[in-house]
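SEQUENCE, STRUCTURE TOKENS:
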Amino acid sequence: MTRRPAYLLFLTGIILAVASTPALAQYPGPDRAPVRFYADLGYVNLFDYPKWISLGPEVEFRLGRVVSFNPEVMIWIRETAGSNVDFVPAATLNFRLNRFTFGVGAALKVDDWGEAAAGSLVPKFQFGYMAGPTRLGLSIYYLNETQHVVVGMSFAMRLGGGPRREPDE
């Protein structure tokens, strides 16, 4: 992927985040805000090489009590010598059961995956556990041509006000 579409997707994510901030001021309860912002830090490809450190913003649009749509733009930094940086936009539709979340979505294919994944998007499955303003997550990217998976762990911290502990739903 050329750099221009990556920058365009990154810019779109920032515009989306800035455009949604007025909704936060109009919503009555901070614990049930329809839009939340997270800062993610993660480690991708736990069981194979190349490995990446990932960081970036994530926006959570709560579509209901148990459903949310989460677009994100992550910066993946390869851990090995001669490392490169990739911008990896992704989106996930998450379902929440009390403190546990699970979701399905897609992420942009990284150049290192080459012919292991067909197309420009890679299916993504995500599992998480929420504890107050933090979330621990496990992401699985399915490389459909070689029948392999890439596993990543992430730690997300919610940005902004609201209660320190979210009530059980």
Q: What stands out?
A: The chain has one domain: 3-159. Residues 3-19 form the longest helix (17 residues). The radius of gyration is 16 Å. Residues 92 and 144 are 18 Å apart (CA to CA).
